[in-house]
Every structure is written in structure tokens, then in C-alpha cells.
Prior knowledge:
single chain; Rossmann fold; 9 helices; alpha/beta; 11 strands; six-stranded parallel sheet; three-stranded antiparallel sheet
Amino acid sequence: MAEIFVQDAFGTAHRAHASTEGVAHILPGVAGFLMDKEIKFLGGVFEKPARPFVAIIGGAKVSTKIAVLEALLPRVNTMIIGGGMTFTFAKTLGREIGKSLFEPELVGTAAAFLEKAKGAGVEILLPVDQRVGAEFSEKAKATIVDGANIPPDMMAMDIGPRTAALFRERILKAKTVLWNGPMGVFEFPEFAQGTIDVGKAVADCKGTTVVGGGDSVAAVNQFGLANRMTHVSTGGGASLELLEGKQLPGVVALQDK
């Protein structure tokens, strides 16, 4: 049927399917150019990142990103946290979060993570101001409030301008930047600015900049910033699992891994 199998579908390499892993046990399997590039950049941030190394982790929930946070903690100099996951961390610090997204069962996990970061000497940056709205709706109007005192009838859906400026300062000083996850509900125009600002900061960084994860990749494409990044990953789940330190079946099966 064939003499060689070239695996170039990084976006499905985390799945142990016949077409991603199985065929490599029958034919000699090697990585294609795209697969090689993905492993080089995403794997490179784990192995020998140029420092300072700044990781920007966003998204809705701590539960979906805690494995990435834990895996990156021993490797980064600064970790920037944004998105809905912010508020579980904020709650552990005694901040008022209003109606913002919150996972009460993970307060202990968040607190332990912050303590671990402190012990490791890793700087954790959380938002200092937020764009809030009365409801989770595209029609909601954004108001900027202090990040520690979100009104009880409001929910935060984006970082504010002071936070964006703080994050930008750290990002521009970095020699390696990894970005996974948006800063807010960027699908709603009223709450897209924080993600745009962070995207522009990453684009302006002179170091190596790697964007991984479906939502952050969608954001850089939506805002026309993709061609200003060193590498934009084609994998959603595959990127996340690689950043968690997991081995991808579609990569492990290859002879030239």
C-alpha cells in the first residue's frame, strides 16, 4: 500500500486513532514539516526557553488549565493569568468578584498553587482592573472597575486598561512568551479589548512568541495578529496536552520523534 507514513496532522496527534498512531506501527512513520515545527516551538518552551520566560494563561476555568499551570510553574519567570479562571484565584485572596465565573471547589487548589509559586520565586500577575457587565450577553455594556471590588450585581468579562498596561510591560521584557487562552469574552466586541491589547503586546515582543490553544489562536487570527507571532499552533487539544507535559500518541509512534 505504501512505503512510508508522514504524520503532519499535529491537531489530531493527541488521539490514538488508526490514522494518527496505528499506521505508524505498520509503516515507518516520520514527522512532516508542520509537525516538526509544532514540536520545535511548543516543546522548546519546556526544554530551553530564553529568559525571561513569560507564560500568559487565560480561559474560562481553572479546572481545564490547572495541569498547564502546574507544568509551566517550574519553567517560567512570570505567569500572567486572565480570563474567567482569574476569579477563583481572586476569591482565595479575599477579593469581591460579584457574579463572575467561579469554581468554589477549586479554591484550595488555587490557594496551593499561589503558595507554590511564591516558594518557587515565580511572579504571578492577576488583573488589577476589569471590564464588567450586568449579564453575559453581547448586548451588555462594559464598565471598568477595580479588580478587587467587583460590584455584587456585575460580572467581569475582560481585563481593564491598567491590567493590559501591566501585562504589556512584562511581555515586552520577555525573551520567550507562551500564550494560551484569551483574557475575556473576546467574541463580544464590548469585552474584546483586553485580548486585543495582550495580543498586540505579544506581537510587539522581540523575543520568541508562541501561541497555542484554540481560543487564543482564533483571537490572533480574528484581530489580524497571527503573522506577527513566531509560531501559531494548529492544534487545540494537542497543544494543551503537550503544554501539560503529556506524550502525544501520534508523536510517540514516529521513528524520528
